[in-house]
Design a protein that fits this description.
By secondary structure, the protein is an alpha+beta fold. The protein has a domain of 371 residues: Cytochrome p450. The protein has 22 helices and eleven strands. The strands form three sheets. The protein has a five-stranded mixed beta sheet with strand order 1-2-8-5-3. GO terms for molecular function: heme binding; iron ion binding; monooxygenase activity; oxidoreductase activity, acting on paired donors, with incorporation or reduction of molecular oxygen. It holds the Pfam family p450. Keywords: Heme, Iron, Membrane, Metal-binding, Monooxygenase, Oxidoreductase, Transmembrane, Transmembrane helix. Belongs to the cytochrome P450 family.
Length: 589
Amino acid sequence: MGEEMDAPGAGWLTWRAAAALAVAAWLALHVAARVADALWWRPRRLEAHFAAQGVRGPPYRFLLGSVKEMVGLMAEASAKPMSPATSHNALPRVLAFYHYWRKIYGPTFLIWFGPTPRLTVAEPELVREIFLTRAEAFDRYEAHPVVRQLEGDGLVSLHGDKWALHRRVLTDAFYSDNLNRLVPHVGRSVAALAEKWRAMAAAGGSGEVEVDVAEWFQVVTEEAITRATFGRSYDDGRVVFAMQGRLMAFASEAFRKVLVPGYRFLPTKKNWQSWKLDREIRRSLTRLIARRSDEAEAEKAGDDGAFRDLLGAMINAGDRKTRAPSAIPVEDMLEECKTFFFAGKQTTTNLLTWATVLLAMHPEWQERARREVLDVCGPDELPSKEHLPKLKTLGMIMNETLRLYPPAVATIRRAKTDVQLSDGCIIPRDMELLVPIMAIHHDTRFWGQDAAQFNPAAVRRRHGQGGEAPPRVHPLRPGLPDVHRPEPCPAGGQAHHGDPAPALRDADLAQLRARADGPDAPLPAVRSAGDLPAAISSSVGSGSVIARHSSFPCPKPPHILLSKILTKSFHKAGLRTCGPPQKKNIGHV
C-alpha cells in the first residue's frame, strides 16, 4: 500500500527535476548563444558593416581580437633604437600598432581590443565632428574601476546634469583673473627651485650635481595645484595630497593585477594599506571641508581680490539655498580633489620635463627664450601676469612641446546612438572611437615634412599662415578633454587660441623663471646615452648642474596600459639610467 502511494510522489519529483533540468539547459543555451554572439557573430557583423563602407582593419581573432598583433608590434618597436637621435618621431614607438596599420588601411580603420571594436579616426574634420559639431552624439569612455579610483570620479569623467552642475560651480575658480592671482606664488616656487639647484652645485666638490628634473618639477606643480585647490588651507592640503600620492602608487600596482578577477577586493597587504590610506584621506578632507564650511560666510564677505580656490568654490556653491537640491555633496568634493591632483600634476610635470629636454637638445632656442625672458621681465624681477602675454617665443616653445609630446597620446569616445559622419561612415550605437592624438600631431600632411622635428618657428606656418599645411589645424592641448565644452582644466585653465592658454600658465612661469636669474642661471644642455637623450646638464657659474631623470616622463594616455607600454619602450631605449657624468656636455650653453 505504501509503495503504491509513493509512486505518484516519485513521478512528481521526477517531473520537477526534468523541468528544472530543461530550464537550466535553456538558460545555458541562452548564455552560450549570447557569449557566442558577443565573441564571434557580432564582431563578424561589424566587420561586414564597415567593410561595406570601405573601412577595413586587421582581422578579428576569436577572443583576442588584435591584441596579440598589437603586443608584438609594440615589442618589436621597443627593441629598435630611435634614429636619428635628434628626431622626435616617437609615434612608431609609442603607438606602434597604429603607425603600422595606418600604412596598410589608411587613417580610418577598425581595430579590436579583444572582442571590443574601436574605430580609429585621425582626419581633423572627423575629429572636429566628434568633439565639436556632433558632440551631443558621443560620450566619454567609461574607465576601469581601478583607473577611476586612481584618477577620481570628478569633472573629467562625469556626465549629464551632474557634469553641468560641477562645470558651473568650478568655472569661477578658472577665470583668467583668478588664475593670475596664482602667478606670484608660482614665480616664487620656481625661483626657490633655481636657488636650490645653484646651492647644490656650489656644495658639490666637482661643481656638478645630478638631479631628477621630473621629481623637482613635480614639487613645483604640487605646490601650485595645492594652492589652487585649497587656497587658504594650503598646509592641510599638502598633507592630504601627500597621502593621495601614496594612494596613487597603490592603485597603479593594483592595475597591474587587473587581469586577476576581483583582485581589488582581496584582503592583501597592499589592498589593506590602500583601503586604510583612502579612509585617512577621506577623514582629513571631510574635517577640512567641515571647517571651511563654517568659515564660508566669512570667505564670502572677504576681499573680492583674494584668490578663489577650488574647494571654496564647491563649498560656497553648496551653501546657496537656491542650489540646495543639487548642491555638491562632500563625497563629490572628495572626488574632485582627487581628479584635480592626479590630472593636473601629471600633465604639467610631463610638459615641463619634455620642454626642458627639448631646450637642452636645442640650445639655440634655449638662448632665444632666455633673451626674451630677460628683455621682458628683467634680470631680477619675478614674472607677473603682465609679462606672460609678451613671451611669444616661450609660448611657441610650449606649444611645440605639446605637439610633439602631448599629455595624452590618444583618447576614446563612445557613440550614444547611430551616427553618420560627414564622410558617410555610419557609426553604430555603443561603438568606440579611438582618436590617436599623437598621430595627428605628427602627421606630415598637416604639419609639413619636418613634423618630427622641434621647430617652434614653424608654428605659424604649420597653422596655415603662409606655409604648406592646411589652415585651422591645431594641436590638442591639455585643458580640453572635451573641445565642444571648454571646461576648466585640471592643469590650470581653459584653452584659448593666440597667446599661451591659461592651462600653460604654471608651465610658462616655471620655464621662464628657470632661465631668468641672470648670468649664473641654470641652463640645461643634453648629452646622449645610446640613441635618445638621457641626461640634462646646465651651467651654474664655473660648474654645471646635471639633471638626470631616471625614468623618462611619458605623455599620460587615457589607459594605464598604454602608459606602461610607453614607459617600458623608453626604458628599453636606455632612458632608465645613464652613465657617469662626462667632462664634455653636448649642447652646453
